[in-house]
Design a protein that fits this description.
Layout lengths: L5 E12 L2 E13 L4 E5 L6 H8 L8 E10 L2 E2 L5 H7 L4 E4 L3 H4 L6 H12 L4 H14 L5 H4 L9 H13 L5 E5 L7 H18 L2 E6 L2 H7 L2 E6 L2 E7 H6 L4 H8 L52 E4 L2 E3 L9
Parallel strand pairs: 3-8, 3-9, 6-7, 7-8
Antiparallel strand pairs: 1-2, 1-4, 4-5, 9-10, 10-12, 11-12
Bound molecules: iron/sulfur cluster.
């Protein structure tokens, strides 16, 4: 098991624009233990990706700014490291894969060139050794005829194969932490399941930890140990994955759960999928009190003016809601 420990404390990320300053991530704290899969779940615009990009300081500054907090990796604050030191960690100790491999892979370079680049940068291997290692990695992520694929370009592969290559590239330097930002969103359901299996297998073989960013609560409960639910830049609930899915404590988590199709469920019957009503609020027009109140089926008067704080409500469970663990 590799030793890794990531701790995010009171992280706040802002963006400045024509309409003033927006807070995309508002004081979130969490930790990722060695060897665990932690999922961060929420709709688009909830701050989950901005929070993940902040770990490797990939937020474009300006307009973005990490306004407060610390991100500690193996006792070093990544937010205070000089760029040179951070470069050694990026892709080596902490690697990242993105939603759309087509925008992350370089269309004019062969897969071989792209696979070998991080190996050569972070190791002392020769070109020939790096080539062999890249072929082995492609084989490990189940790319057929990997040596042949090394000479091909991204457009010659299917979407699922490209995502496997991205995972392979991220694994070339045996990272201690893999950040996977919506790694299956652009893929069909069958390939999604294969990619999630691949991530889990890779975790089991290497002992790395995975921070999985997704909007799909149903998918993550199969593979994550813990889940954090974010809404409007804040953590609204967290807990062990299975418990959180079985007994959500926040009305927003309950809404996410009810919008997940169940195996064998026929649509068009009385058991229709229930959408969360309304839209995610704009960050420059956040509602007063609880930011979820205009969409919440359990809203009370105090929710409109008083902002709930994240509170421990059981072993490993936290929720930020005035119902304090009794959603209807
Ligand atoms: Fe709903 Fe009120 Fe809880 Fe917010 S605090 S989620 S509005 S019940």
């Amino acid at each position: 098991m590799v030793d890794s420990d990531l701790r995010v404390e009171n992280l706040k990320v802002t963006f400045s624009g024509r309409n003033g300053e927006l807070t995309a991530v508002d004081g979130i704290s969490y930790h990722l233990d060695a060897g665990e899969i932690l999922a961060i779940v929420g709709e688009s615009g909830c701050g989950k990706t901005v929070g993940a990009l902040s770990i490797l300081r990939l937020i474009p500054e300006p307009p973005g700014k990490i306004a407060q907090g610390s991100i500690t990796f193996n006792s070093r604050d990544l937010l205070q490291l000089p760029q040179r030191e951070l470069q050694k960690i990026r892709g080596n100790d902490i690697a990242m894969i993105f939603q759309d491999p087509m925008t992350s892979l370089n269309p004019v370079l062969t897969l071989g060139d792209q696979m070998m680049e991080p190996i050569l940068r972070h190791s002392r291997l020769t070109q020939k050794e790096a080539w062999q290692k890249a072929v082995e990695v492609l084989r490990s992520v189940e790319i057929p005829s990997p040596a042949e694929k090394m000479n091909q370009y991204p457009h010659q592969l299917s979407g699922g194969m490209r995502q496997r290559v991205m995972i392979g590239m991220a694994l070339t330097c045996s990272p201690k932490i893999l950040i996977a930002d919506e790694p299956t969103t652009a893929l069909d359901v069958l390939i999604q399941a294969q990619i999630m299996d691949l991530l889990q297998q890779s975790k089991e073989q290497t002992g790395m930890s995975i921070l999985l960013i997704t909007h799909d609560l149903g998918m993550v409960t199969e593979i994550a140990q813990r889940v954090i639910v974010m809404y409007a830049g804040k953590i609204v609930e967290s807990g062990p994955a299975k418990e959180l899915f079985q007994t959500p404590l926040h009305p927003y988590t309950l809404g996410l759960k009810n919008s997940v199709p169940k195996l064998g469920q026929k649509l068009g019957t009385s058991k229709r999928l229930v959408e969360i009503s309304g839209n995610v609020p704009s960050l420059n027009l956040l509602p007063s009190g609880c930011a979820f109140h205009p969409r919440c089926p359990s809203v009370m008067e105090r929710c409109k003016t008083e902002t709930p704080v994240l509170k421990k409500v059981g072993p490993g469970r936290e929720v930020s809601c005035w119902l304090e663990g009794n959603p209807t």
